[in-house]
Please model this.
Amino acid sequence: MIDRRSLLRAGAGLAILSPLQALAAERGLDLALVNARVWTPGAAATRLSAVGVVGERIAAVGTDQVRSLTTSRTKVVDLRGAFLSPAFTDNHTHFLIGSTTLSQADLLSAKDRADFAARIGAVAKARPGKWILGGSWDEQRLGGALPTHAWIDDVTPDTPVAVPRTDLHLYLLNTVAMKLAGITRDTPDPPGGVIVRDAKGEPTGVIKDNAKALVERVIPPLTDAETDAIMRQGIAHGLSKGVAQAHNPELDWKTYESLRRLRAQGETDMRFYAFVPLPDWEKMAAIVAKEGRGDDWVRWGGLKGLADGSLGSRTAVFHDHYSDAPDQTGVRVTTQANLREWIGAADALGLHVTTHAIGDQANDDVLDIYQAVEAANGPKDRRFRIEHAQHLSQAAIPRFANQKVIASIQPFHAIDDGRWAVKRIGPERLAGTYAFKSLMDAGATVTFGSDWPVAPLDPLIGVYAAVTRRTIDDANPDGWLPQQKITVEQTLTAYTANNAFAGFMDDRTGRIAPGYYADMTVLDADLTTIDPLKIPDVKVLHTFVGGKARYSA
Model:
């Protein structure tokens, strides 16, 4: 048995043992990770150290303390100088959609129009008659023009196709899908949506934002078993990237429902925070009132609203017109009146609200609404979020800090959109685009994620993007808008402690400290010391969640 006095000495003067430390002193550690280069938010640098675990939580940090609590029953893992950090949390995923793409065609890497069509045709040939729903595409990699149904009709004569643009705000449909959805030249644009038409008024096959519902209603739903199996594939993929937790700001209930089914079967291996559509605030409020908010594997109680669309689809809402479309300023996906009403009602009931906003006008609008709601409902720890916070007016940047609104950003978008964003909004408005450093310097809480499958579910690529800002076409070797580069430590903090705060878990995740969950990622290189250009080549060796190695390379 370990003498408690030895633990007190190792604990550098702790006056009272916590129950966890007392348990470690009595029976020893379950797991000891030794010879690791440990980094945690707030640390000046990595240092060679050790971490001890009892059950799901960290019981000790420090080589001497861990050694003093190691017994014959302790599993000791020598990390041989590997980099150990709090596990990554991804602040924004569309987890079911992303998981589905793992078994779909890779359209994003298509080299040209013919290659694009051939990849869809191959899937249609392998699965004749079954809907093709992925993967995502980007017209900027295919010459710049939006695709049309004519690109793919010949290779999908009997197979319906509804494949999303990489930002998930557009679908490309073939003729079969348009017929099934009843989309013709006479179909009106729905509120908050657009049916793109050619010079003769005929639908081209591209539909935007709320118009997506026209086809979604005729796509056969997955069975529960199919959905859950797809989710498990996504969980395995996320763990392989060092991700221990994902936030899911969704516009439907499918991911939430699947996660609850998976949780009923046991631990989900990754932790999840499920958001559902803001208009359904009453339904979620009733669930919370009756059942609570779940547990630390699967939690709920969050709502996601939509203020606008995306930059790529020209549906992000700006104060001024698009530079390459002088007649357009974007599309309000939800009316401001509805946003104000729903956010106010949800907040009054203690639900957590986040709102998608891309354009500078949309961000200003949401900040105004949040300010009005706070004034009406009174002060409390509400942690309002804006998803993407992508293009900001200069006045908006300090408002995030002053209003304590969390900027939930996805850094890969900067090195993707940086290839062409200036075409959409001109050079002047780039001053507030992906303004990581400006937001941090202003004192705002900035969190990071992927927007998977819009971008890869890979925090290392996100770290690379935030630190280097080198666009994926290598056209900006010194970084696109380099004044907005941030440090590796700032980026890691955004992926760990700040994400924990954004999900109301900052008292138990996001740090390597006694009492916190043993959610940790082990990498084969020290991110704080290597050449940033080599970050994408770093490998994940282990992902621990709740003290268990859920992934090992």
